[in-house]
Design brief:
- This protein is α/β, with parallel strands linked by helices and 554 residues long.
- The chain folds into 3 domains: 386 residues, Glycosidases (TIM Barrel, Alpha-Beta Barrel), CATH 3.20.20.80; 53 residues, Oligo-1,6-glucosidase, Domain 2 (Oligo-1,6-glucosidase, domain 2); 76 residues, Golgi alpha-mannosidase II (Immunoglobulin-like, Sandwich).
- The chain contains 16 helices and 20 strands.
- The strands form 5 sheets. An 8-stranded parallel sheet has the order 9-8-7-3-2-1-13-12. A 5-stranded antiparallel sheet has the order 14-15-16-20-18.
- A hairpin with a 4-residue loop joins strand 5 and strand 6.
- The chain binds alpha-D-glucopyranose and calcium ion (CA).
- Calcium ion binds next to loops.
- The site of calcium ion (CA) has 6 residues, from loops.
Length: 554
């Protein structure tokens, strides 16, 4: 497997609104980010991915872009961004931008022009259709954020398509002029010096011609007609021709992706279209289809998914590994245990960072932040949570039950401000009121406390990332899952004569674990663990709650 800088790196994701407020207006910003670059560097990552920093009316907090070539006033200026880029590069931190091109904001100048009428040169930048008959949408598609995927514009008696919120009209990627614009935007940022892109729902950009009706579902009806659509590869190939001029990196967000179909995009060699992909399969182990249909966590499914991705991509493509981001609830509250926060936080970190692939770490994950349990819908900010709450209520679910789902599944779980210290507003802002409420547990869960405690989750992440950096086996070794009882996930990695055993318990119960006979624990070094060591008998031991251990034989 060819070595590449983007395979060696680990990435820290910033959701700018909630990271750090530098100017005291209650909203995170570039000044705040610059002040935390040393913190990020000390964590041991090599790159930062920014969720969108561009001007946006915030129908979907930045994922509705009104201008692709500027920085939102909430966050600062383009000149300040250049300073940030420079300061990051001085510290050997690469910068990855969010490329949101399936849709723009309805306040983007292209859209404002587009809705002036069919004669306007921008009209075909978006997907406009006549109704099937007066008052009836062009087809039965539903938004993934609930409600109809079409919005009527009476001035021109046509509907525009939005598969997300109505403030996010879908671009018509079939229009070559739109693709030209996108390529210019990509160049604009790469010429400035950014190092790559995370490409938002990139697998949705090509729609089935004729926009046929979809299979009726309660949400996202029609999705089969635009996920991995007919011209997706062609368009990605065009964008790639721009990327080829730079030493940059791309990771595409790809809902409903399987390893088999991912390989059509990320298999290394001539036809490779993206460097890696974010799939969602491992995020569906405590729900069915969507995060909102909550089920108990199923470790067996998680293991199967990981085993599949690790083995199917090995040697031919590269994994993008994450367990949190701005769309996912906090992992400790899902797959770990708030009661065993410290142990399970470390175990979950080990579980995914010791696999092959580039690890992504979401702000606050490294200090073990947990879901805030916001228990009334009017305190939520996220459009998809607000709409999904309304849908569940309409379907007859009680407020109590719906709130229960919301507290578990809402994206807002990941979007409360970063907890820096135990002072006012958790050190996030000096304003009276932060833009969004702070999890009251900041009193004991905060970066400063984590820095001081030698055994903290934060210090464990540092060790873990250093271990990965120093050992090629973690990056390039092959992967073999061990047969164990279902609440234990254990795997062996092998590389150039070295062997590594990773053990993760997903249970607070004591369980017996025995290493395979060709991995002799007494010959191995215990390189990482979340408990004091205890005796190894017969090449095995009893696991403690959410225990993790990494043994290395050199
Ligand atoms: C992606 C983003 C999410 C956003 C959506 C629409 O899934 O991660 O935050 O709402 O795309 O842009
Ligand atoms: Ca601010």
């Amino acid at each position: 497997m060819e070595k590449k800088w983007y395979k060696e790196m680990s990435v820290y994701q910033i959701w700018p609104r909630s990271f750090c407020d530098g100017n005291g207006d209650g909203i995170g910003d570039l000044e705040g980010i610059i002040s935390k670059l040393d913190y990020i560097k000390e964590l041991g990552v090599d790159a930062i991915w920014f969720s969108p920093l561009f001007p946006s009316p915030n129908a979907d907090y930045g994922y509705d872009i009104a201008d692709y070539r500027d920085i939102s006033k909430d966050y600062g200026t383009l000149d300040q961004f250049k300073v940030l880029l420079d300061e990051a590069h001085k510290r050997d931190l690469k910068i990855i931008m969010d490329l949101v091109i399936n849709h723009t904001s309805d306040e983007h100048s292209w859209f404002k022009e587009s809705k002036k009428g069919e004669d306007n040169p921008y009209h075909d930048y978006y997907i406009w259709r006549k109704g099937r008959k007066p008052g009836k949408e062009p087809n039965n598609w539903l938004s993934t954020f609930q409600g109809k995927a079409w919005e009527y514009c009476k001035e021109i008696d046509k509907y525009y398509l939005h598969v997300f919120a109505k403030g996010q009209p879908d671009l018509n990627m079939d229009n070559p002029k739109v693709r030209k614009e996108i390529k210019d935007i990509i160049r604009f940022w790469l010429d400035m010096g950014v190092d790559g892109f995370r490409e938002d729902v990139i697998t949705f950009i090509s729609k089935e011609p004729g926009l046929p009706n979809g299979f009726p579902l309660p949400t996202a009806t029609g999705i089969e007609h635009y996920k991995n659509g007919p011209n997706l590869k062609k368009y990605l190939q065009e964008f790639k021709e721009v990327y080829n001029d730079y030493d940059c990196f791309t990771v595409g967000e790809a809902p409903m992706m399987t390893p088999k179909s991912a390989l059509e995009f990320i298999r290394e060699g001539e036809g490779q279209l993206l460097n890696m992909m974010f799939h969602f399969e491992h995020m569906n182990c405590d729900n069915i289809i969507t995060n909102w249909i909550v089920t108990p966590f199923r470790p067996g499914k998680l293991k199967k998914v990981y085993n599949n991705w690790q083995t199917k991509l090995h040697g031919i493509a590269w994994n993008a590994n994450y367990i949190e981001n701005h769309d996912q609830p906090r992992i400790i509250s899902r797959y770990g245990s708030e009661k065993y926060r410290e142990q399970s936080g470390k175990m979950l970190a080990t579980m995914y960072i010791c696999q092959s692939g580039t690890p992504f770490i979401y702000q606050g994950q490294e200090i073990g932040m947990t879901n805030p349990r916001i228990d009334s819908i009017d305190r939520y900010k996220d459009v998809s949570s607000i709409n999904t709450y309304a849908l569940f209520r309409k379907l007859g679910f009680s407020d109590k039950l719906t709130m229960k789902f919301c507290m578990y599944a809402s994206r807002d779980n990941a979007r409360t401000p970063m907890q820096w210290n135990d002072g006012k507003n958790a050190g996030f802002t000096t304003a009276e009121e932060p833009w969004f409420e702070i999890n009251p547990n900041y009193i004991f869960i905060n970066a400063e406390a984590e820095q001081k405690n030698e055994n903290s989750i934060l210090n464990y992440y540092k060790k873990l990332l250093r271990f990965r950096k120093e050992n090629d086996i973690v990056k390039y070794g092959d992967f073999e899952m061990l047969k164990t009882e279902k609440n234990i996930f254990a795997y062996i990695r092998k590389y150039e004569g070295q062997k590594m055993l990773v053990l993760c318990s997903f249970s607070e119960k004591e369980m017996a674990f025995r290493a395979p006979s060709d991995f002799c624990i007494s010959e191995a070094e215990l390189v990482l663990s979340n408990y004091e060591s205890n005796p190894v008998i017969h090449n095995g031991f009893f696991t403690r709650p959410y225990e993790t251990r990494v043994y290395l034989i050199k």
